[in-house]
């Protein structure tokens, strides 16, 4: 697959956004969203308030890059799947890999997600960001699944598959976040996501080979 590499300016912008997102998540964990202001986040991130608002509309919106990081990794893994791999196998492999903490960064990512999803239970604006991240993930997943499904696949079935796969991961992360289950093994995000994936896609023709 030929993908355009991000420019230096785009990489710097993404890095700044992630710094702000981490600052927001840390403050939410310490004080809760209600006890945190955009000014607090900007100060913690070491940026001017105008820089904060250049990238984000609200304090809750600031954590979007952290919540979307896992989905981006999942899509990248799925997009790297070679030809001839059945969609069901490709999806399960990508989900398992993306939600398994292979390194410190992945473990940290899951920790941020757990904290933010717990905070979102009592913050409608934060829940709205989470839902928007998932909607965006579903839309970005669709062309990847369309390619994997191959010519002749029913567009409606591919659309349903993208929705089901996205919801499988969403529900798994939400269920895991409210528990004290570990990041690996039984009850982990990867294990729950595979279970949800099987439940949601088991009856779809696209996943029956």
Write the layout of secondary structure elements.
Elements: H1 8-31, H2 38-45, H3 49-55, H4 64-79, H5 87-99, H6 104-120, H7 124-149, H8 155-177, H9 189-201
InterPro entries: DNA-bd_HTH_TetR-type_CS, Homeodomain-like_sf, HTH-type_TetR-like_transc_reg, HTH_TetR
Protein name: TetR/AcrR family transcriptional regulator
Pfam families: TetR_N
Describe the structure.
By secondary structure, the protein is mainly alpha-helical. The chain folds into 2 domains: 8-55, Orthogonal Bundle (Arc Repressor Mutant, subunit A); 61-207, Tetracycline Repressor, domain 2 (Orthogonal Bundle). Helices cover 70% and strands 0% of the residues. It has helices at residues 8-31, 38-45, 49-55, 64-79, 87-99, 104-120, 124-149, 155-177, 189-201. The longest helix has 26 residues, at 124-149. It is globular. This is TetR/AcrR family transcriptional regulator.
Overall body shape: globular
Q: What fraction, in percent, of the residue positions are helical?
A: over 70%
Integer-rounded radius of gyration:
18 Å
CATH H level of the largest domain: which superfamily? Tetracycline Repressor, domain 2
Structural class: mainly alpha
Work out the oligomeric state of the chains in this entry: single chain
Tally of extended strands? 0
